[in-house]
Every structure is written in structure tokens, then in C-alpha cells.
Design brief:
alpha+beta, 9-stranded mixed β-sheet
Length: 230
């Protein structure tokens, strides 16, 4: 059922006392320019997904904006709210070839002003499928049948992040329905989002591998950039 699982975010909006990561305070972004540089350095370029990936059009989200699910369950780009220093998403794809459809993915990084702000994003993400089991991405494109699960550090198999939320559902365009996976992971003040939209000729195992590698790559980048120890 939607919202299955608990996390530090969902329980109280507070930060879990245990963490797999300790950042160097001197390296944690405190300004929007510092945060924008970190986001740009961490968020995946197409080739970092794999050699077959190229840029989508558009290739990146508009600068100075963040994606927000509005009251009508529609995704909108809005200016950065209080508590968010920077946010960036890059969109990549494997073009249709050899009888396979176009596989589309995205990687996003949001840098928050405080750990509490970052934690609140995870809480909101966990709860959104309860409010909007069907969400409009853009005209003629929607996500349906959404379910979410949250796993805090030390729970389940989460030994790598302060918190994580997974959303699963179907991406629908016209009469075409494909598997949709979205993962949001937090380390300190940084949240990382990965989405994978299935396509003809790709198995769920392949989609999971792409998503898992993308998450690990960005987590490792955050740890490297912020100088933390595990």
C-alpha cells in the first residue's frame, strides 16, 4: 500500500542520530553559488549513466528552480523556496534502436540550507503518493498507481544514506504504459534524486541496475566533495 515503511523523515521531521556520513563543516555549502557548484559537480552527465546515453532535449532543468507537486497533483517548476540553496536536474536517454524503445532517465541534486530542510523533503516525498496517486508530469504525460516506501539509515539494507524514499508506479503517455522508478536519497544537507522510465525491450532488472549505479555514483561524489568519512 502507499506509504509503506517508516523513516526519520516520516516519523518526526527530525534527523536520525545515526548517520553513515560526516561532512567537513568547512566544505558544506553555505551560499547559493557554492551550492550550485556542488550540485553541478555531483549530478550525473549522460556518459556517467553509460556509454549509450545521450542528452535529452531539454538536457537540464531551468536554473534557479525546483520541481514542486502542486495542489492539483501537477508537477511545476518554481523558484527556489526558503531552505533550498540550489537544485539541478539533468535528463538523459538511450535513443530507440534495434527494436528497443527510448529509455529516459534523470538525475537531480538539491542542496538545502540545513539538515532539517533536507529531511523535510524526504518526508514530503514519502507522503506525496498518499495525496496524489496519479500525477501529471506535463501535458499528455502522467504517473499512475504510485506507491512509496521510506528507509532510514540502519533499517533494511540502508547502510549508505541518512534516509531514502522509493516511489514505484507506471508512466503513461497516450496508450503506452511503462514502469516508473524514482529514488530520493539524503546525505546531510544534500538530497539526490534518480528517476528511470522503462521502455520496450528493457527488463525491470536493467532499470534497477541503472538506478542503483546512478545513486551510488552520486553518493560517492557527495562524500568526496564534502570530505566526509564513513
Amino acid at each position: 500500500m502507499p506509504g509503506v515503511g517508516t523513516s526519520a523523515s516520516s516519523s518526526a521531521g527530525l534527523t536520525a542520530s545515526a548517520s553513515p556520513f560526516r561532512a567537513d563543516p568547512a566544505k558544506v555549502p553555505g551560499t547559493r553559488s557554492q551550492a550550485a557548484r556542488l550540485a553541478s559537480d555531483v549530478v550525473l552527465e549522460p556518459h556517467e549513466w553509460g556509454g549509450d546515453f545521450t542528452r535529452q532535449n531539454p538536457a537540464t532543468s531551468p536554473p534557479g528552480t525546483v520541481a514542486v507537486l502542486d495542489d492539483q497533483c501537477r508537477w511545476q517548476r518554481r523558484t527556489l523556496p526558503t531552505g533550498v540553496l540550489a537544485s539541478m536536474t539533468r535528463y538523459s536517454e538511450i535513443p530507440a534502436t534495434g527494436g528497443k524503445g527510448t529509455l529516459k532517465v534523470s538525475a537531480g541534486v538539491t542542496v538545502h540550507a540545513t539538515v532539517r530542510d533536507a529531511d523535510q523533503l524526504l518526508a514530503t516525498t514519502l507522503e506525496e503518493p498518499l495525496r496524489c496517486r496519479e500525477q501529471q508530469v506535463r501535458a499528455g504525460e502522467r504517473i499512475t498507481g504510485l506507491m512509496s516506501a521510506g528507509t532510514s539509515y540502519g533499517s533494511g539494507r540502508n547502510t549508505y544514506a541518512d534516509d531514502q524514499v522509493v516511489e514505484l508506479g507506471s508512466h503513461v503517455t497516450g496508450r503506452t504504459r511503462q514502469t516508473y522508478h524514482w529514488y530520493v536519497t539524503r546525505l546531510g544537507t544534500v538530497t539526490m534524486a534518480v528517476s528511470v522510465r522503462g521502455a520496450k525491450g528493457y527488463s525491470d532488472d536493467e532499470l534497477n541496475r541503472y538506478a542503483s549505479r546512478a545513486q551510488v555514483s552520486m553518493i560517492n561524489s557527495v562524500e568526496f566533495e564534502l570530505g566526509g568519512d564513513r
